[in-house]
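Chain A, query sequence.
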Amino acid sequence: MERHDLMRLLAGDDAASQAALAALAAVELLRERREPIRIGQIKASGSSWVYTVFLTGDGGALVACAGVRRPGGGTAG
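Chain A, predicted structure.
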């Protein structure tokens, strides 16, 4: 993605812009963390979203979460 496209996306107030800002916040949280993390994924049947969760090394706390919309509106299993 070109820089000007990214800046236009981040300046918007639509759902795509909000998702991009949330993803950047998650990346910053992960970048700041020096301890190991665990990664998990949540895919609900019939849902159009997939979530990746980033947990502390012992799995006791959530560090960050990122969600993306799946193609096909959740028809993929």
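Residues 3-69 form one domain. The chain has a mean pLDDT of 79.
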